[in-house]
TrEMBL record:
Keywords: NADP. GO terms for molecular function: acyl-CoA dehydrogenase activity. It comes from Winogradskyella jejuensis. GO terms for biological process: bioluminescence. InterPro entries: Ald_DH/histidinol_DH (IPR016161), CoA_reduct_LuxC (IPR008670). This is Acyl-CoA reductase (LuxC).
Length: 348
């Protein structure tokens, strides 16, 4: 396949996904495929309580937006695609949010390589069906996509995502293979006290979307010494109904009980707890915060912790900051851990 063929196939895949949003229906797409994927969405929701309809809809819309012809051309135009000998790239996927491994899957195939996918049991229904649809609309993909639940074998390079503990295993197991190994990361927001209501409201999306389970979710705030949380709590109130969802509520109740019994100081509003803590990864229904007195000192601190941070949300902090409300809307060229996946794949 030529690069343009692969781009066209993913544009059509994005159009297929749009059939599950409010977009006009396309009668050219076989209704049986639409019904089949609708069933897979239902299975994904039943299998994983964190994959609510709202979260599935948001994930699909994110990929609909990303897989436009304009975006795909802009992304791929930054590289020279000249793969003479396609290799097999193993991908070990996480399962914390819906289709979280899709960008790696897309990157491997857009480069012209073959992909061997080992999915998380928490997110196993959606991608295989989309792969079948890709093979239908572009037969050149047939034989290039394999899913396995067995021990990985017969691969040339690997992209693996997991916890810090599993990453150590990955690094040992794949030490003889070219690899990208991703560990735990969290995202932070830097507040000055001058944020608008709109910015703080957008920040609440960065915190609560996907229940805070993604590495791009904000789990920690950096605040000035004299910061008042009143405006913050007012702005996040739009997410108040999240406490009516049982899995979230159970985590909220459990973590609140732990904090109370441990006599930790915290602030809470009935659906979110704010706790001063130096850690980056906060439990569900909790956001940590840490005070700063000098922005230059804070910059040095965050730079020393860059391997633990996925995104920094701020306004006027640095050229690489993410605007409030945009952490879960990455572009195709926004790479996890700032490691250029396509460059890695093209230089194998």
């Amino acid at each position: 396949m030529e690069l343009q063929q692969r781009v066209n196939a993913f544009v059509r895949l994005g159009h297929f996904l749009s059939q599950f949003t409010t977009s006009p229906k396309d009668e050219a797409i076989d209704q049986a495929f639409i019904d089949g994927f609708r069933h897979q969405l239902k299975l994904a929701q039943e299998h994983n309580g964190w994959f609510t309809k709202n979260n599935l809809d948001f994930a699909l819309q994110s990929w609909i937006d990303a897989l436009s012809e304009e975006n795909l051309i802009k992304w791929t135009s930054n590289y020279s695609f000249d793969i003479q000998n396609p290799q097999t790239i193993a991908i070990i996927m996480a399962g914390n949010i819906p289709l979280v491994g899709f960008h790696d899957f897309l990157s491997v195939l857009i480069c012209g390589h073959n992909v061997l996918v080992k999915q998380s049991s928490n997110d196993k229904h959606l991608l295989p069906y989309l792969a079948k649809y890709l093979e239908l609309i572009e037969p050149g993909f047939k034989g290039k996509i394999t899913f396995t639940e067995e021990k990985l074998d017969g691969f040339d390079a690997v992209i693996a995502t997991g916890s810090n503990n599993t990453a150590r295993y990955f690094e040992y197991y794949f030490k003889d293979n070219p690899s990208i190994i991703r560990k735990n990361r969290n995202s932070v927001a830097i507040l000055t006290g001058n944020e608008t209501e709109e910015q703080l409201s957008a920040l609440s999306d960065d915190i609560f979307r996907y229940y805070g389970l993604g590495c791009r979710n904000v789990s920690k705030l950096y605040i000035p010494e004299d910061y008042n949380f009143d405006a913050f709590f007012n702005a996040v109130f739009k997410w108040k109904d999240i406490i009516n969802e049982s899995k979230y509520a159970n985590n909220y109740d459990y973590n609140k009980a732990v904090y109370i019994m441990s006599e930790f100081d915290m602030l809470e509003n009935g659906f979110l707890m704010i706790k001063e803590d130096q850690s980056f990864g906060s439990p569900i229904a909790t956001v940590f915060y840490e005070k700063y007195s000098n922005i230059e000192t804070l910059k040095r601190h965050l730079d020393s912790q860059k391997d633990n941070i996925q995104c920094i949300v701020a306004d006027g902090y640095s050229n690489s900051e993410i605007p409030f409300g945009k952490t879960q809307e990455p572009q195709l060229w926004d790479y996890a851990d700032n490691v250029d996946t396509v460059d890695f794949l093209l230089t194998l």
